[in-house]
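In the previous chapter we treated chains in isolation. Here, by contrast, the input contains two separate entities that must be folded as one system, with a combined length of 629 residues.
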Amino acid sequence: MTSHLDRAASVTVVALGLAFAVFFVVPFVGLVTRALEEPDTWELLRASQVRQALTLSLWTSTVTVALALLAGTPVAYLLARVSFPGRSIVDALIDLPIVLPPTVAGVALLTAFGRRGIVGEPIEELTGFTFGFRTTAVIMAQLLVAAPFYIRAARSGFESVDVQQERVAYTLGASKVRTFFRITVPQASPALLAGVVLCWARAMGELGATLIFAGNFEGKTQTMPLAIISAFEGSTLGVAGAIALSLILLSTALAVLVCFRLATGRGGRQ
Amino acid sequence: MTLEFDVTSQLASFSYQAAFNADREIVVLFGHSGAGKSLTLQFVAGLLRPSTGRIAIDGACVFDSSRSLNVAPQHRRAGYVVQELALFEHMTVAENVAFGVPRGVDRRQRVRELLSFFELDGFGERRPRTLSGGQRQRVALARAIARDAPVLLLDEPFSALDDALRTSLRRELLRLRAELGLTILFVTHDLREAHFLADRIAVFDEGALLQVDAREQVFKRPSSRRVAQLTGGSNIWSGHVAEVAPGSVVVEVQGLRLRSSGSPAPVQVGQPVDVVVRPERINLHRGAPAPGEKANIFSARVVAEYAYGSTHTLHLEPTPAGPSMEVEIAARPYEVLGVATRKEFSIEIDAGDVHVIPA
């Protein structure tokens, strides 16, 4: 009886797993085959709209990661090491953009930094500068949505570092700064790297917040995901263009994942 | 190479107080876990700030609450080795040792000297995790003294190792003290380790330093019943003073009169006292030993015995009256005396081995 039931259960589990795996793989297979069948794919990849979108996506997401590293690392370190009043609130606020729909983040940015926003309006009155609908806005949207992924990973990285080693380093004469860069960061580096990859990938894929806050202007705010949307909505690129753009994003993502695995794999074996 | 230490501290559920000096010697901080031993090291290293007091390393004051002085651990010159060693696993052995070498010193030269001093030549380019337990210990020691620290703080550094390795590392530590003239504070809860290493022993209990004295003094003349308990005194009896003579007193314990000499505290007839006799200081004889002025002689019966390989522990009941007592004898005397078959013995305890503490 029991062995019968067990065998049935095993078969069901394997079947469900296989079905899920097929569901996972088929869309990507579809995308790649369509791209290969489409006669214009290679032509479209060289179109100026595609090139502009790719360039914009690459450099805005890189700036976003740099800003997240610069401002997010101290936040992550404080959250991991120092207990201060309101720490759990800060923690929850950082999680908020992760669970929030990006469109809501876009609306929130608009109400804060838009021309009628609580910060945007006085700044425009004083300086004439507006945030909305420029590349700055793209980076702001990406930072709000993607930086929490880095902070989260960095925080758990710092938490995993052996505090005794830092204390011993102090007794060996190392300043707090030297200890941070020579003892803490090297040990947290796999987590920091993971955070960078997550943050960068999230920034590359950002759509909702960018569309609402930065708009969709070719060459200025039209990143890759926005270009894909435009292609579907009937820009000159068409569906074939959307497929070509998707292919680029897919191969970039794969390349990043492979590099990441190699890097952390080597770190783990040391 | 001196350490002066006099500190109090109020922690959440714990009040700490200790004062002692050390000079080119190994002071073993001994006590149960949570007694305040590791706390002491952290106060010296500057990793924790005491409430009040004064700490000086090599004559230089590093903490003084009356002057609001609290030198950062970076500038204290106290080498610190923790139980888990905290080796920097992402660096090589040489980089670990070099980490502590101050600027202006020829690093490569200094690292080479240290590695050779600790018999680690040829291991410089290895990662710490590829080394054996004993080698890792020596890397931690080399790193700790790399900046010419006059004071070395060791927090149960050998407790994770097997017996043979511990023995050889303890010998190494004695060599270190002898060759470099270091002052070493060594934390342990292992009585044998304390006995082997200590020039002096500081006994901690619940945040208080109960006694700090030369090793033999602490074992033979504990300052209180608690110290006697903590240092493995298994014969601790309550009694009262029966006679007081110049240089000696006679105490009575459950009907047994014992002469004691050399106990420092003055006592009066009738005063309640604690009497401590270490189990290895009690002699068994088959016949009656020659009665001496200073010896206590009485008869007793073995009621239980336990074998520990190199030693045997016997439980004795004095006849006709007296407290039950524990005796530790080596394997060979155990055989010679024939304890396995014979149970009645004459007992001899030197008056100098009967320690009397006012209760």
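Residues 16 and 22 of chain A are 10 Å apart (CA to CA). The interface with chain B takes residues 162, 164-165, 167-175, 182-183, 186-187, 270 of chain A (CB under 8 Å). Compare these points with the single-chain example from earlier in the chapter.
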